[in-house]
Structure formats: C-alpha cells, structure tokens
Amino acid sequence: MLAVGKREGGNVPALALGDRPSRMTLSTYLYRRPRLVLVLLLLPPALWLGVIYLGSLGALLVQSLFHIDDFSGQLVTRPGIETLARLFSPTAREVISRTALAATIVTVLCALLGFPLAYYMARYAGHRMKAVCYIAVMLPLWSNYLVRVTAWRLILAKEGVASWFAAKTGLSGMLEFFLGLPGIGGPSLSSSALGTVITFVYIWLPYMILPIQAALERVPRSLVDASSDLGARPTATFWRVILPLAIPGIAAGSIFTFSLTLGDYIIPNLIGTSRPFIGQIVYQAQGTAGDIPFAAAFALVPIAIMAIYLMLVKRLGAFDAL
Amino acid sequence: MRSETAPWGLRIATVGAIAFLNLPILFIILYGFTTDEQSYAFPPPGLTTRWFAVTYARADFWAALSLSVQVAALAMVMALVMGSLAAAALYRFRFFGREALSLLILLPIALPGIVTGISLRSAFALGDIPFSFFTIVAGHATFCIVVVYNNVIARLRRSSPALIEASMDLGADIFQTLRHVVLPNIATALLAGGMLAFALSFDEIIVTTFTAGQQQTLPIWMLAELARPHQRPVTNIAAITVMAVTIVPILLAYYLTRDTQDAAGSGK
C-alpha cells in the first residue's frame, strides 16, 4: 500500500534534480490520489473483460432464450424456455454425460502420466537436465495444435504407426483385444473412443505438468529433510509431505485438462467415433444448422459444469497454484 | 546441489512421458517428406522434399500466415497492455471486487474456448456486427490477457516493494520510477508473457471459427486443407515451418525466465 507519510520527503530533492515542474506536479498529483491511479489502471482491463467478455456471456444467455420456429425456420426473439428445454432430451443428456466422463478420464490420466515427469524435474533434475525436460514439455505445447492432432490420426490410423509397431512386436493380438472392447473400441484406433482419449491426453498433458512442477518446486527442501529427520521413510515423506503440497498444482492443472476436453470439438471430430461431444453439438448448431439459440443453450452446459468444478478445486487451493 | 539420484521407476516414467510428448512431433516431420499424399500408411513409401516447394508456391498459405501474424501481434499488444495494468492494480491495491476481477481475468481460459467463441458469436449476432479482422482479435485478446497477467503479477510478487519506495525516497517521480525501476524489473516477464500470448493466438482455432467470417487464419487454413483429399503433407510443411521459426523464441523465453523459474517456480 502507498505510504502517505513519505510523500514530502520525496518531492523536494526531485525538483532539485531539474525535472520539469509540470510532470512533477502530475506525479505528485497521482501520488496523492492512489484511488485515481487504481481507477486508471483498472479501466482498460475491467472495461474489456466487464463489457466485451461479460457482455458476450450475457448475449449467450439472451440467445439461449430465443428459439427457431419449427414451421417457418425463423428466429423468434420472444424470450422463452423452448430451446433450454431441449437440453433435457435423452440425446442431449447422453452427449453431456459422455463428454463429462471423457474429461474426467483425460484429467486422471494426465495427472498420472504427468506427475512423475514433474516430480523428476522438481526434485532430481540438475540444471541441464531440467532445461532439457522443460523444452521437451514446451515444444509440443508450442507446436501447432491441429497438426499434433493429425499426427495422432496418422499414428492411430488402420495402417498407421501404431498398428505397424504392434505387428512388428507381436502385439497385434493385444491391439485387437482393446479394439474389440465394447464402448471404447472400434474398427481402428483412430475411429475408437480409446483413440479420442489418447489424443486428448497427449494434447493437454503439458498443461498438467507445468503447474504440478511449479507446486513441487515450491516444497521447501527443509521440510523434506525434517520429515526424514523425524524418522519418516522416503515413501512416507512422499505420501504425507510432498503429495499433499502438490495437490494445488494438480488441481490447477486439472482445470485446464478438464475444461479443454469439455469444450473441444476438433479432436473428437478428427479422431473417434461418430458419437458427438458437447463441442461438436455447439459447432454444428451454429454452423450448418444455423441455430444459434441452441448452440448458445448447449454452451451453458460446460459453463455450469465448470462453475461446479471451479468451486470444488478452489477448496484444494487450485487458484493459488495457477 | 541435487546429489540424489532418482529411483529407476521414476526415471523410466519420465523418459516415457518425454517420448510420448515428443515422438508425434517426429512423425509430423517425417510425414512432411512422404511421397504419399493421400493415406497414412506407415512406413511412408518414399521420401521427397517437393512439398516445401508446393506449399511455398501457394498464395493462400502466405495469406493465412500473414493474417495469423497480424492477429497475434495485435492480440499480444492488447494483452500486454491490459494484462500488465491489471497485474499492477491487483498487486498494489486492495479494493472492493478484487477477488471477482482476478476470477474474471482467469475465466476466459478456465471456461472452454468454445464458450468464449459462441458467446462472442451470440453478441455479434445480437448487435449485427459483421465479422472482420477485429472480431478475430477481440476473441484472442480476451483469453491472452491472463497469460501476461500471470507472468507479470508473479514477478511483481517476488520483487520487493521497498525498491519502489526507495526510488521515490531518492527523489524519482512516479514516471521515473516506472521507467527506471519497475519496467526493467518486469521486462523479461513481459517478454515471456507476450510471447506466450502471441503463441496462443497464433495457434488458436476453437474460438476463431466462431469469430472469423471468410478470413482464414493459419489454423483455419490448415483445417480446410485437411479436409481436402490431396496434398496432405502441405499442412505438415506449414507446421514444420512454424515450428522452425518458433523454436528460437521458446529457447529464448526459457533462458530469460529461467532464474525466476528456479526462484519461485512461475512455470507458466
């Protein structure tokens, strides 16, 4: 906070340095009015986010109250719940629960896969090794999303890398077994739910690793030493000291993996079954179907899910680890 | 400083995760050189460099690239201004609605991109706003603010407030303090945040499909290319080109923010 008492001491020598008085006056004027400085600082970002972003979310809500007339195909701008009611149809409910389930599985897998790497980076890697790991995590993040998705399409395709590798190593039987499983299998990996999940995990994994690594990095060395001094074995130290302190990082990372999976429509479109995700419904509704009210209504679902999710992870300290 | 060696299981898991993250990138590169332009057969039947010539000869590739650079540049500048102003305000002051504002800054990336996209689309439809360069930028700037904000506020939290007080006590006015004390202190955070914002905007497709009309940014051009049955490797060449250009900034960003990484793990 600004300390008012220091003001006068600050003014006089500065004038003696030969500053233009007008600027000095403005500076003093601002210094004396921290509230005005606050308003000036806040104005651009608060206006942008408050008017354009929140305004758009409001527009979303308004659009979801409109509906397209069944007979004329015209947009009816009289507020009503016709469109929102369609969210409770069995098909819509199935889409919602499938997407939420996929987001949960992807998040859990990302945490399981990402934690060891983050832990190694934070705890064991030397300077050079840490740089290598960091770049290995950042490189996929910085390379083109769409091309990474198609890379998986060609890896998982029927005659792609995965089946070639399976054939060479005699694992074809195992691949067939997984593809034969009801619910997750399919004619090939690139057209199975399994393929969709693998691609999601791949694409969002860096978003999980970075916050976990940051959280682990903040665990004081002395705490770990204290734990072993007090007689805890390394496993006990890990489970009872290190892991609890990593929870905020995992929770922060899970916001990204969960939310990004919930809204993505490109990945399930390019890789996976024909059963749609929430994002695909929204995309098709506003695009080919020209039904913005339904797209808007369906977009309220991920907002509602994320609102609950954010409240849950806030308790785990996710917001402090972002 | 870290003399302990990692257990074998951990090392294997680490190597596995790194391989999982980076092997697909090798395939992206490999398939940029394949002679097979239609299928995904592995191994590729033959290798060629002709796709570079094919890609670079296409005017629509350069048009999309140029649009993406312009959009990302403007979105980055807007994010830098709004993100650092917000960081300064939230770091320096306690005020009513502070918590709400920090949540609001975070919201565009905490909510799925499709929500931002369809929200803006709904607003444009309500207000009869035609799609343009600026509707694309509006979408991008909104979710880029947070990355600049995160970088700058993390740096501000670590720098001592006494530094600013000292500068003022020694006679500098607000502007001199800003110019000679605050800005040098947050310069690398601004650079890292700005680059991340640029990269996010450059790669963004989910929001863009809702806020762009006929204009094609590079990712939208690539998506359209993927739907075409021929010349598949062209998208790989586009990606390889972008990767080759962006690897330098990644390394630079790492070295610029490395010390802060170690200090407080502002790993984002």
Question: Key terms for this structure?
Answer:
heterodimer; A: 322 residues; mainly alpha; two-stranded antiparallel ribbon; 2 strands; 74% helix; B: 268 residues; globular; disordered C terminus
Structure description:
The complex is a heterodimer of chains A (322) and B (268). Chain A is 74% helix and 1% strand. With 322 residues, chain A is mainly alpha-helical. The radius of gyration of chain A is 27 Å and the shape is flat. A two-stranded antiparallel sheet of chain A has the order 1-2. By secondary structure, chain B is mostly helical. Chain B is 76% helix and 0% strand. The longest helix of chain B has 34 residues, at 59-92. The two termini of chain B are 24 Å apart. Chains A and B meet through helix 1, helix 2, helix 3, helix 5 and helix 6 of A and helix 1, helix 3, helix 4, helix 5 and helix 6 of B.
Write the layout of secondary structure elements.
The complex is a heterodimer of chains A (322) and B (268).
Chain A: H1 7-16, H2 21-32, H3 34-65, E1 67-68, E2 75-76, H4 82-85, H5 90-123, H6 127-142, H7 145-156, H8 161-168, H9 172-180, H10 193-217, H11 221-229, H12 234-263, H13 266-270, H14 278-286, H15 292-315
Antiparallel strand pairs in A: 1-2
Helix pairs in contact in A: 1-2, 3-15, 5-10, 5-12, 6-10, 8-9, 10-12, 11-12, 12-15, 14-15
Chain B: H1 8-30, H2 50-56, H3 59-92, H4 98-110, H5 113-127, H6 133-158, H7 161-169, H8 174-203, H9 208-211, H10 218-227, H11 233-264
Brief rundown of the structure:
By secondary structure, chain A is an all-alpha fold. Chain A contains 15 helices and two strands. In chain A, a hairpin with a 6-residue loop joins strand 1 (67-68) and strand 2.
